[in-house]
Amino acid sequence: MKKKSGKDEKTIIQGIARLAGAFSMAALAMSCSHEGKPVEIAVDGFPVEEVMECGEGRILDIPSTGIMEINIAGDMLVVSTGDMRDAWQTYSLPEVALSGSLFSVGGGPGELLMPTPGIAASFYSRGSDGHTMCIISSTMNGRFIAGDLTTHSSTDTVINNTIGPTTVMAYRLGGSGWFNTEIIPDSCKLRRSIVAEDGTPVANAAMSALNEKSVGDMSQMPQIMFRPVIKPDGSWIAEVPGFTPVIEVWNTSTGESFRIRYTDGDTAADEKSRLEANKPMFGGGVAFDDFFVLQRYGDDGTPHIDFFGWDGTPRATLSLTCSDIRRIGIDIKNGDLYCLDADKDAIVRFDIADFLTKID
User: Fold this and answer.
1) pLDDT band for position 101 (50/70/90)?
2) 106-125 average pLDDT score
3) Rounded mean pLDDT of the chain?
4) Which of 51, 216, 250, 309 supports an S-S bond with 206, CB 3.0-4.6 Å?
5) H or E segment at 271?
6) Partners of 144 in the β-ladder
7) Is 60 exceeded by the pLDDT of residue 64?
8) What beta strand segments (E) does 23-120 contain?
9) Percent over 90 (pLDDT), the chain
10) DSSP string spanning 198-243?
């Protein structure tokens, strides 16, 4: 393996930790079973397939300059930007009225070290008062920052979870612990770990197997990185890569696992070709109690919103005629799809209430 200086390795690690975007993962084949299903589930279509014209969306009156990410948390649309003073803004749903802002960039208590997108946060409802909360892991200085989106306040918080400069991200697993990803420079691996609420490490067979994947050089680390899509109760994780047609899905308690492989011509393109052309296959995803959703790009860049059951069953797909959708958020309660449309430089809302009724 080619060796780099300690300074170079640190620079690479910090750069990857800051971006933590959608990257690629090598695909493996297995011949086991998962509750009667083959571990590898081939997907060449969906039982429900619909197309929505871009013109059917409504452009929202939200300043779009510098938007990094959009998220739906509780009854709020959360917009994270590069603003140094009001890094996040929240809008009440469904009226999309500005309700407040939180997080500034700096080195003080409750402040972000740099503008931080919503992907770096774990959102949840606090049981004691019903407030919509988020936890952000600040990997550069080993801190956790708690944000109360209901009161628009933030503070440092003490958590039984160790993070440091090699940690890519730390995610809340429902109310039962943490899921971390960490770069291991010496072996060129990405190590996953689960930490219980009291700080105790948790063993998991599926996680251990995935941790064995490695690359030949630190510069190739993006090939095995991913965005985790985590079921709200923390029981399942779907690992969404950037450039490969394979999604790894595993249970955080039992170690059960399977993988979803897209096999149709529109998504089974060669990984090397996609990497060279910088054409990602996936832009992330969102999770719900009964299903998870992937944001997928066709070979021509057409955005597809794919719905899967947590057993890997393909349920439905919605294709949009918009040309450059970067991020999505879904308000299940009101039946709305929110998209960050880079071509229009705007957040666009689509009414998908009727489509959602067809997801079996």
Assistant:
1) very high
2) 80
3) 83
4) 250
5) helix 271-277
6) 137, 157
7) yes
8) 33-34, 37-38, 40-43, 49-52, 58-59, 67-73, 76-81, 88-92, 97-102
9) 44
10) TS-EE--HHHHHHTT-B-SSGGGGGGG--EEEE-TTSSEEEEE-SS
For 83, the token pair is: 């603003």
* Nearby residues of 135 by Cβ (< 8 Å), 6 or more positions away: 121, 122, 124, 144, 145, 146, 147, 157, 159, 172
Per-residue exposure over 210-243, b if at least 16 CB sit within 10 Å of its own CB, e if not? bbeebbeebeebbbbbbbbbbbeebebbbbbbbb
**Is beta strand 314-320 parallel, antiparallel or unpaired with respect to 49-52?**
parallel
Total count of residues recorded for the chain = 360
pLDDT in tens, 75-88: 999 999 888 888 89
Instruction: With beta carbons less than 8 A apart as the criterion, state whether 82 and 115 touch.
Output: yes
- Cβ pair 332, 75 in contact under 8 A: no
Please report where in the chains the tokens 């439905």 appear, as a residue: 316
- Residue 279, pLDDT > 60, answer yes
Tokens of 145: 């920052």
Q: Indicate whether this model's pTM tops 0.90.
A: no
d(CA 347, CA 344): 8
| Burial of 60 per CB tally in 10 Å (0-12, 13-18, 19+) | middle
Q: What is the pLDDT of residues 230-259, one digit of tens each?
A: 999 999 999 998 878 899 999 999 999 999
Show the tokens assigned to 254: 């039992």
